[in-house]
Amino acid sequence: MKRAGRPAEQLTVDELVRYGPLGHAEMLVGENLARPVSRVALVSDLDQVRRCGPGTAVVLTGGLALGAWAVESALRLAWERSAACLVCPAVTGLTQASAQLARRMRLPVFVVTGDTAACALELAAAIASPEAARARLAARCAELFAERSNVRGIVGVINSEVPGVLVALVAPDGHVLAGQASADRAEHRIRVDVPGPDGRRWAELVAAVAGPPSPTWGETVRLILRLARAPLAASVARERVDAVHDAERGRVALIALFAAARAAAEPAGQDSPGNGGRSMPEEVLGWRVEGRHVAVFLRSDTTLDSVTASPGVVSAWQEAVQELPLVPWDRGWASWWTGDDITVEQVVGTLRRNLARMRSPIPLSGGVGRVAAGAEGLRESLSQAVLAAGVTVRDGHGTVRSFDELGYRVLLASLSQPELADSARVVLADLLSAPDGPVLVTTLAALLDCSGSTSQAAAQLGVHRNTVLGRVERIRARGVDLDRPDQRLALHLACYALLPELS
Amino acid sequence: MTARSITVADVPALLAGAEFFSTSAAGEGIEFAGVWLEDILAHTGPVELVAADDLDPDTPCAAVGAMGSTVAMAELPPSGDEPVVLARSLAGRFGAPLGAVMPLNAASVNALHPVAAAAVLGLPLIDCDGMGRVFPLIHQTTYELAGVSLSPLAVVSAGHDSLLLDTGSARAEQIARSMAQAAGGWLLCGMYPARVARLREAAIHGSVSRVLEVGRVLCEHASGDDRSGHGTARHERLLRELTAATGAAVLGGGRVVEIGPSVRQAGTVYPGNPVGMVVHDHDSGRLIRLEAHNELVLALSDGALAAAVPDLLCLLDRSTLRMTGPERLTAGDQVDVLCVPAAPVWHSVAGLALGGPGAFGFPLRHPREEGR
Predict the structure, then answer these.
(1) Among A79, A106, A379, B300, which is disulfide-ready with A31 (CB 3.0 to 4.6 Å)?
(2) CB distance A67–B364 less than 8 Å?
(3) Per the CB < 8 Å rule, is A69 touching B262?
């Protein structure tokens, strides 16, 4: 074992503060804490300070509490003998000037209320067995790790129990998953990789320590971080299982909800079991089904594996929008806002803000349906949102469009079916074979969108009108006739079928 | 040593010098005594200042000095006849009239009382004293160190109550102090009656001349006679001249960063309250902590003992070029800390036991003791 061969190094003043008896003392001056402490001297007379060797923790008895001058004299003598630190009783005359002197001497000074002799005894015990003091801290942390069930709790144990250390759990992309974000920016850091449930590196525990840590203190911090790894991996696995489980439950519940709503809308008695499942999702999952809803649908590029990304997307959503569920649905994720005065514009704005805030593992864009009432209304609104979201995929992460805003164009988004796209590639083969084929197809789509207006198409594409004119020439040269009404719809559809893969 | 005299014209210098040797704390509010002394000298004429060696060794003499509060004395000033009462009491015990008087200590208000006494009694003033500074107790003297008995102690109060005390030194001090409280806050004392021959070993010689010399240096600078025209240069020249006149060392100088009551546990025998202050030395950045108990008792420079009683610690106010003390200072004032070595007899083992840091309740060795 790595630690077994290491000699028992002396505790530093720093360590005595962090998990030793000095933790309870008031630190008047915290300079130069990295000094090792070799022994403790309880002095009741200034002359005794003269006999202290280097590295001594000098503890003044109450008998020497004769005022600031006595503490300052002891401070000076301790400094001359390279003492590690000075511990003095609470003398009322100790002021800023005494602290300033200690800072000049770079000697740590601690003030103990109560009996300094007891403090000296505790110091002596800690110094006699440094390993024991370190082990006690590690054991205390391990005990608390076992009691915490989530990532935040486990990281919180280190932040509260290991004084002077700030810890953050940082994802590979730099996102702080838990703990103190400032830890990742500190000058002196100790890092330990944290494996995920699959055993691969999942995140990193970063501990910020004040000043360069002594070798022993660094080792102690590293040990505690390592102790936290297994509980972290376990809690992450649990959270993922929970997320997948919840998402699947949500999907089933939504299907049941829509089925029940459809059954209720149709003539009575036709599908009675639907009524039995009706109340399940609302009560168990806490959903609001009655009232006015606006559904939203999030989706990503079809080439990405949305099933694998689902737990990540759901947890990122829950981080940003805590009060609403996100249910895997179709090839994306569904949710809805409910309220008596809710409007589509509000939901578009809110969703756009939340998408910008969300730290999703994959790019997401959203569609928003119309306002509708009840479970059946929600189903319709969701269908509209799915169609609208189909259009947004081309525009990249963070885009949000509403069904109303897009109008009939939402239909075109459904065209990126593989069969239709294959046919389109054959039909537009001549155009695509040009060196700038994809650009010509995009331009053709824009022209058709704008009823042949080159200036409007130029504005839509963000290029000069002359550029569009040049492209039109090249398009015509490839045998495409824009002016034939019987061909125009087919041409338009072919362009839209190809657009997703061209973008 | 040649005889010389103290006239009305010498009083301002005597006052300024008295303030210097009061070690910064006890010199507060003694200006009233200057006016009072000028008045007496205007009536009686100059006082003859003589060296002990110039007098007949058999001449009976006694030390004169006041004890108690200078504030009380300013409110209830002496009438001027008090020395006559003292001289009568002591002459009765001597069996012969006094032939000369000497100061108990030529510092603070006690630098002026012996001059007034000599003037009123028509006697010469011996150019010596028993402290060379201010000590809080009347038996903290070189007379005591040399074995001259403090008693019989003749005292007279503002109300002309008089008493002749025959007891040991420490008890005489205690009893007289109680009486001072009851009799108006101060007492004028005639003590250490002896033949002049005893003074050869027992006194610090030339004390009064030294007070006058230092006083003249201070008066020249305080008169506003701005010869160099530049504040910093004037201040440096004054420091130079003071150190030359007294053999003082400058421990440091700068801003007062802290001042207030000190919580140290002082011996209860001393009147007054302990005060602590810290001066941030401008040049070295050192922190000079001063502990006072009426007088400045010790100085720690960065925690190391730099100076202590019986050596004198004096504070010079840089803005007024006058001697100052904790009662007149606030945080932010600029001062210089001077240390004037005490008379050699004070550095003996017996001298340090009587007037060293230990006598003031500080369990410290005087810097001179370190080598022993």
Answers:
(1) A106
(2) no
(3) yes
